[in-house]
Amino acid sequence: MSSADGATVASSDIARLAGVGRAAVSNWRRRFPDFPQPAGGTSASPLYALRDVEEWLARHGKPYDITPRDRLWQALRGSSADLELGDRIGYLGGFLVVLERAPERWKALADQPEPVVAGSLVDLLRSVLPEFEGLITDVPDVDAVTIIRLTAQAAERDSAAEVFDFLCKRYLEVHSRRHTVTPSWVADLMVSLTGSTGSRVLDPACGLGTLLRAGRATGAALVSGQEINLTAARLAVARLLLHGAQPRLAVGDSLRHDAFPGELFEAVICNPPFGERSWGYDDLTTDSRWTYGMPPRSEPELAWLQHCLAHVKPGGHAAILMPAAAAHRRPGRRIRANLLRAGVLRAIISLPGWGTTASGTDLWVLCRPDGVDHTHVLLLDATGDRDIIRDIWWSFRADPESDLPGPARSVRIVDLLDEETDLSPARHVAAKPAHAGVAFRPARTRLYTAARTLADTLPDLSAPLAGEPLPTTTVAELAKAGALSIRQAPMGMLTDGGGLPVLTARDVRLDRPPSGAADIAPGIIELRRGDVVALPPGRHSAVRVLSEDGMLLGPHLLLFRVDPQRLDPYFLAGFIRIAQAARTSSGSARADLHRARLLRLPLDAQHEYAQAFQTLSAFQRSAREAAELAESLVSLGFAGLADGSLRPARSSA
Predict the structure, then answer these.
(1) Which residues pair with 267 in a beta bridge?
(2) Which ranges carry the DNA methylase adenine-specific domain (predicted)?
(3) In 358-435, where does DSSP find H-type helix?
(4) Distance (Å, rounded) from C-alpha 299 to C-alpha 391?
(5) Residue-wise pLDDT tens digits, 334-345
(6) What pLDDT, on a 0 to 100 scale, did the predictor assign at position 5?
(7) DSSP state, residue 496
(8) pLDDT at 436
(9) Phi and psi at residue 46, to the nearest 5°
(10) Which domains does the chain have, with CATH numbers?
């Protein structure tokens, strides 16, 4: 391992440290002949010496913020091979736990020569950190001491947990395909549905410990896990310890070598590996865990499901992520039928906007039989709204035979036991009775009101008198003149966990509130009231003017922050929308919102245009709502006439 002087940064790192988008860094590389030359990497992904980048930013007056943990990360990445990075971060996690448990031990060692420090680190970890027993497989060299000292410095400014979370976050950005990380909202949901507060929780495929951390955060008394990958296990143990848990974690293959044989837990939560054909089919044909049938070779997820059930106490729950296809694939139909007959399967919930397979991801909730006769199963298609899941689940638990709202059905088990045993939520929710006769009259009233409102708000614009055309400018020219600034969030920004809401590209496109979450970090942009946020040129177009503060800018969005004394944000948003529409109609893939043209007008005239743009947008929303109501009314009418709940109105003549 080399010294911190060998720290390198990628273009994305430079963008994050300088608080700009990647496009700005690319522009600097083209425009400035003195921009640092690559010190490593490849032609497609060059790496630059951190010291050279700092000097260049300072020389050109570019503000930047490099914290101790930034320096630690860059030094660590610059001195470690990619395949070593996870292991080194895991050991640093153990060292951070030592700093919390026995700071005096490090204080006595810190000023010793590098060879002494390097030779003492393993003994220090083993004596202070018994949880790392079996996880220490390497001996640090003298050069590693530099990274250790940088870690201690970073922990003086931020907490040990914050430093380690930062390193893990950066590591996952670099190696996003090497580890499957469950989004924090999914982890919290799984813990909530199992009711694991105060209970003992097991995750037999714990990865980096995300599910166990969620269990500990909600009050689990004991968290236990097993992980086949030593690097991930080391990271998980350090992560859990730094967040206040006392985990029991074993390294090994859960299916072939169960570390907790015969042990039962109140809750088991698991995100197993999908599609793993070498799961042990030939070795485990007579295994006692296959209570509901021998899993086919092509259905490894059903092996994991039964492994989880084998560790659940009677009356306890398991929450397992499954590929959506597992609900209907033909080879698994016998096991699905047996789970239904035994009353074990309680719910299948299709999750929105996340998944490791092309067909999506479902959450299966199961209950180990305890003598209670279950007759219904909850099938919920929550792909459109994840916020409904908890309320519908608890409504189902309270009264399994009741009609459920929205895209959910409580289905009798006997009605699912056909030749296919297809448990796909979308299939059964689509067949939910519409009650057309009851719904038709209220729908007609809503459409009548919407149509009246639409007529009353019909926009009115006038044609100008003949004369000279109005002067125009571009977004780029306005930015150059200081009337607005254009920014982007870091492309690798994660939006699945943190204390502040994140406005995502999907939120802007669907015109909904922010759905992501993140914490403040270098390069993260806090949005303000009056900011204009737009999708970059692509298949979809959308623009929004923010009416409140308090959220963060998500990736894949452009932020236009105006000087309100020179530019009306709604005026700008209107012309950005025009540029997006022109790109869509022309089919051009080279459109650039920086080149979008708009009229050059004084502020008072801009306000008039802004009001007109807002009126048109409001009318469009009303028209869309009326169209949706009309479509719903027509569907209810046809359905009601077909099932006899409606009949033609008699003529008054």
Answers:
(1) 201, 317
(2) 157-384
(3) 389-398, 413-416, 425-430
(4) 31
(5) 999 999 999 999
(6) 55
(7) B
(8) 63
(9) -70, 155
(10) 4-174 (no CATH), 472-600 (3.90.220.20)
| Rounded distance between C-alpha atoms, residue 268 and residue 617, angstroms | 49
Q: Are 212 and 183 in contact (CB under 8 A)?
A: no
Q: What's the Rg (C-alpha) of the chain?
A: 29
CA separation, residue 373 to residues 309, 376, 434, 599 (Å): 18, 10, 29, 70
Token couple for 42:
């490849």
Tokens representing residue 66 in the block: 């490099």
Whole-angstrom CA distances from 479 to 50, 162, 525, 568 are 29, 36, 18, 14
Q: In what order do the strands lie in the sheet with 408-412?
A: 248-251, 222-227, 200-203, 265-270, 312-323, 361-367, 345-350, 376-381, 408-412
Query: Residue holding tokens 């920086």?
Result: 594
* Residue located via tokens 């990497």: 41
Q: Which of 2-11, 56-65, 625-634, 640-649 has the lowest mean pLDDT?
A: 2-11
The pLDDT of residue 651 is 58
Phi-psi region of 62 (alpha: psi -120 to 50; beta: other; left: phi over 0): beta
DSSP, collapsed to helix, strand or coil, labels residue 429 as: helix
Q: Which H or E run includes 500? A: strand 500-503
Helix, strand, or coil (residue 349): strand
Handedness of CA 603, 608, 611, 613 (dihedral sign): negative
Beta bridge pairs of residue 559: 487, 533
- DSSP code at position 464: P
What confidence tens digit (pLDDT) does each residue in 435-472 have?
Answer: 566 778 878 888 888 888 888 778 888 888 776 788 99
Strand-pairing partners, residue 517, are 496, 501
The letter for the amino acid at 285 is T
Q: Which residue has the tokens 């913020």?
A: 65
CB contact at 8 A, 328 and 347: no
Written as six digits, the tokens of 286 are 């007579």
Buried b or exposed e, range 505-517, using 16+ CB within 10 angstroms: bbbbeeeeebbbb
How far apart are alpha carbons 643 and 645 in whole angstroms? 6
Residues 183-209: what's their mean pLDDT?
92
DSSP class of 32: -
Backbone torsions φ then ψ of 251, nearest 5 degrees? -100, 125
Q: Find, among 216, 289, 210, the residue nearest to 254 by Cα.
A: 289
Distance CA 19, CA 70 (A): 13
Residue 81 structure tokens: 């091979």
Return d(Cα 564, Cα 603) in angstroms, integer.
Answer: 9
Beta carbons within 10 angstroms of residue 481's beta carbon: 12
Bridge partners of 367?
Answer: 317
CA distances from 211 to 12, 175, 190, 208 (A): 29, 20, 8, 9
Taking the C-alpha atoms of residue 191 and residue 120, their distance in angstroms, rounded to an integer, is 40
Taking the mean position of all CA atoms in its chain, how far away is CA 172? 13
Rounded Cα–Cα distance for residues 164 and 96 (Å): 8
